[in-house]
Structures are given as structure tokens and as C-alpha cells.
Fold:
Amino acid sequence: MQRLAAGDASSSEARDESWRRRSFSERYSFVQIVRAYADWRRENQAREFRRLLHVLAPQVHMQLSSGRIQVLELLTCSDLRFYAETIDADGSYERRLFQLPPTTELSEVLEALNLPSRGWRVELHPMPGMLIGEDDVTAVARTRSAKLFELGLVPGSTITFRRR
Structure:
């Protein structure tokens, strides 16, 4: 199965420049395909279906072999395991591991970190899309009721709160 919207960015066959750009990073696309299959499988346990994904992208292969992408976790756990970092104006740094449902609101993460709701820039790594900028993520995050999946968080992501 080919990854969704992760086509060859260097393809000379595409006439229009916009068709040569990837919509999503290869890592993000791979993770979302595995999670979608796991969700489908949980809802259709009686149906037999086998999925094979051939990984050719060096970036995805490296993250699989290094353990940054845990396929078994993606298949068996519907929660998101992610890191939340805070970087204050004086450079002080804190990093915490979370495991929460994807429907958790950003406000709950802010409360767990004891952060005020204003004065922070939100960064997400990896970015959910190649054409999405950090300002886009920050704009979504301004609504404290934004859910983690709406931000584009996937297992293994890091969300950084940086003091403005």
C-alpha cells in the first residue's frame, strides 16, 4: 500500500508545482495509516483482513528501526503517547511524557503543566502537514478547547510550549 499524500516530491512528471509537494511528512502518513487500520480492526473484529505496508522511505525506516515509531503500540493502544515541553523566557526547560485519549482538550494538558492559558507559542513536531506552518498550529491551539487530534498530534509527537 502506498502512503497517503506522501508522493515523490521530486517527480518531474507533475506539470503543476503544487502537485509535486507532499501534503504530509512520510512519518505522519505512515503513523496515520497504521492507526486507521487499528481503529477499523477494533470495530470489525470478526472480519478477516490483512494489511501489508512496505517501507521504502529512509526516514520512516530509520524511525521504525530506532524504536521511535512503535507499530505494536499504534495497533493496540488508542491513546496518544506524546511529550510536552515547556521552554520559559529564561531558557528553563521541562519535558513530560503524557498518554491521553486523542479527544483530550489542550486545556487539560495546560492544566497538568500548570501553565497559564495565554502567553505561549505552540509548536508541534513532527508537523502534521508539509504545508502547515507553526503559526497555523498556534492559531488552532489558541482555542483551549482544541482536541489533541485536531492539532495533528500522533503517538511519539512532541508539543512544545514556548514563552512569548
Observations:
- The radius of gyration is 17 Å.
- Strands lie at 80-87, 93-100, 120-125, 158-163.
- Residues 17-75 form one domain.
